Amino acid sequence: MEKRPAKILIADDDSTVRTTVSTMLEMFGHRVTGVSDGNEVLTKVDDSYDVIILDINMPNRDGFNTLEKINGLNYDIPVLFLTGVGSMDYAVKAIHLGAYDFLTKPIEDIEIFNVKIERALEKRMYVLQERKYREALEEDVRVKAMQLKEQNDLLVKYSDSLENATVLLMSSLQNAMEAKDIYTAGHTLRVTRYGQQLGKSMGLTEDELVVLKRASQFHDIGKLVIDLSSIQKPGKLTEHEWNLIRKHPSVGATIVEPLEFMEKEQFIIRHHHERIDGKGYPDGLAGDQIDQLTKILTVVDSYDAMTSKRNYRENMTMEEAVEELNICSGTQFDSEVVDHFTRNIISFVPVESAVH
Q1: Is pLDDT of 354 > 50?
Q2: Of 32-46, 69-83, 205-219, 224-238, where does mean pLDDT reach its minimum?
Q3: Half-sphere exposure of 280 (CA within 13 A, CB side)
Q4: DSSP 8-state class, residue 238
Q5: CA distances (Å), 212 to each of 171, 204, 263, 278, in order?
Q6: Rounded to two decimals, what is the model's pTM?
Q7: Stretch 203-220: mean pLDDT, rounded?
Q8: How many Å apart are CA 146 and CA 113, to the nearest integer?
Q9: DSSP letter (8 states) at residue 169
């Protein structure tokens, strides 16, 4: 270890002893500060000292009490007791308080005195090295934690951007599909708006509203792989054509399945044609097997379908659609959702009215 002049604090009420010990320490190249009692020690001491030498019997504050106070400062400075009393009780008490060693006075063997001081200095050096290492380690951990946070923030930002890009792409596909059929144009937009307004009025959380919005935007995306001629043909659909169209919820769920961030939306998309009485499709879920967000989407999707003109039937008026929702409340639709929607339908109607 690199040698350096040590800074030593000595306390003894006997000025002769204090001067003698200070002279020997300075002879070995150390810098010494001398005080006469424990109170002065506590006034002078700071973390810059390497060793403290305390007389045990001092006025005002003895060595033991002074050491207790020094321990509370957490400087980890080795303390040696300088005493002419060789009592076993003193030794036990000193060790219990954490004293590093004893120096007997008068000091007769300078070499032994120097060895004890050097050993105390070595301990102090190790304490400082360990502290420096710990501080460097803590700083390294802090820096790495900051770097990790920055990387995580970038990942989150990238993930959000990827999600947004995916949603925009899917929305474009959905809009392209609707644009091919004048009878379904605007359906997704209206259903999404109905769903958001109804969800807010029913006290959904922000996270739930996001899920409902995405599910509403893509609830019919399964129709992308269905022959649109079945939808666009004049007149009623055949049973085969209805069976084909009924596949769109499960097909839509399959399309979004690879998107892990849309797990909840996948459930809603798959089940937005289920019924409370279990007679819906594709899985025949009933009652509480259908979650609240799906129940909301089922109502607003059906309402818009009823009030939108189709090539195979005339659209209903708002009043007729509300009456139909109420008739089917408790069987096809959730009663609470229907009640909330029908009581507030006027405020839910978007600017671009769905009624033609």
Answers
A1: no
A2: 224-238
A3: 25
A4: P
A5: 15, 10, 12, 22
A6: 0.54
A7: 92
A8: 49
A9: H
